[in-house]
Amino acid sequence: MVAKLNPAQQEANRLLGSPAAHVLLRGGSRSGKTFLLIRALVIRAAKAPGTRHGIFRHRFNALKHSIIGDTFPKVMRLCFPGVPYNLNRTDWFVTLPNGSEILFHGLDSSERTEKILGLEFATVYLNEASQISYGARNMLLTRLAQKSSLNVKEYIDANPPTTSHWLYSLFERHVEPKSGEPIPDPADYATMQINPDSNRENLSPEYLKQLESLPEKERQRFLFGNYQTAIEGALWTLDRIRREAAITDANRADVMSRMRRIVVAVDPSGCSGPEDYRSDEIGISVCGVDVDGIGHVLADLSCRTGPAGWAKVALDALDLWRGDRIVAEKNFGGAMVESTIRSARATAPVAFGADRFSLRAGRGVGVSGRVGVGRCCWSE
């Protein structure tokens, strides 16, 4: 071996060799996570002749540029200079002298997914897993079944996403992301934080300075490697939403009596279900206008679910708040909202109007106008 691991990588390397079947290295940008995991995967491939190992990312083009074109050859050059390998540029896999294979696959097309389903692996490595859906990850686990002298392993790296992501549920809370039930064997899930500061000798001072100058939210993720509790694109912080929701829940009848009109606003994102983290949440909010013409956001019900699920959320809100109608943006998704809502309730009142309502995807759908603390002006 030529390359020398820094102390953080040495500690992480010990974790990779532990009995844990699922190992997540989470942390900031350019902290050496990917280099270390590829190195560990190649060692496994070299140790067990004829085994198969896969490196996966959401988009193949990103994998091609970052891993195939950069990190993988760098690992082979620095850590395994005497090991020749052949890269098949048609099916994108590397063959080692002992017959072991390392495949590179994106998860962004059905054609690539079908190829994966016909194979078995001793190791699967999810690169930048914050972009990979829970469903895609579970599909890969069904392929982690190759019998060999190795114990099967799932390696993962990620710049930590929000605490609503499946990574946080599995590795931090040790619960199944969909059901919320405790996972059977928490010891099988190991994680470690590894950040750019520990990799200073391989980074320029200018790059670290650039990370340090990022806005606080991005700095927490890409410099300090921390999970984020705020939702991307939120109009208000979650703490503020919770405060407003607590007041509303306690005084709903009083709040409703002061509203001249109440509507439920829906902004579809194309999300297919709870595990679809490639799409934004379905933006759903309850909005009211009072006797003075001031608009109030009364409830944020944004969710990540399929069409039947968000239709029920919207209709339940319409009933609970005795709303006048469900409104949707005319320019995008209006017909789909109407069809989905009325398939659940044929008589549901649905209206459109790009000029009347400004809807925003994700948490905190708003009404057009000036945004204040927990309220905004309504343009009728």
Outline the structure in words:
- The chain is of the alpha/beta class and 380 residues long.
- The protein has twelve helices and 14 strands.
- It has helices at 7-16, 33-47, 60-79, 110-117, 134-141, 166-173, 205-212, 216-222, 238-250, 252-257, 307-320, 334-344, and strands spanning 22-26, 52-57, 86-88, 93-95, 101-106, 123-126, 153-158, 189-193, 259-267, 283-290, 294-300, 325-328, 350-352, 375-377.
- Strands 3-4-5-2-6-7-1-8 form an eight-stranded mixed beta sheet, with helices on both faces. Strands 13-12-9-10-11-14 form a six-stranded mixed beta sheet.
- Helix 1 (7-16) packs across helix 2 (33-47), helix 2 (33-47) packs across helix 3 (60-79) and helix 11 packs across helix 12 (334-344).
- The termini are far apart.
- Mean pLDDT is 83; it is low at 354-380.
Spatially, the strands of the biggest sheet line up as 3-4-5-2-6-7-1-8
Contiguous runs where pLDDT drops below 50 for at least 5 residues: 354-380
Radius of gyration: 25 Å
Largest sheet: 8 strands, mixed
N- to C-terminal distance: 70 Å
Question: Would you report the number of β strands?
Answer: 14
Percent of residues in helical segments?
25-40%
What structural category characterises the helix and strand content? alpha/beta
What oligomeric state do the depicted chains represent? single chain
List the helices and strands and how they pair.
Blueprint: H1 7-16, E1 22-26, H2 33-47, E2 52-57, H3 60-79, E3 86-88, E4 93-95, E5 101-106, H4 110-117, E6 123-126, H5 134-141, E7 153-158, H6 166-173, E8 189-193, H7 205-212, H8 216-222, H9 238-250, H10 252-257, E9 259-267, E10 283-290, E11 294-300, H11 307-320, E12 325-328, H12 334-344, E13 350-352, E14 375-377
Parallel strand pairs: 1-7, 1-8, 2-5, 2-6, 6-7, 9-12, 12-13
Antiparallel strand pairs: 3-4, 4-5, 9-10, 10-11, 11-14
Helix pairs in contact: 1-2, 2-3, 11-12
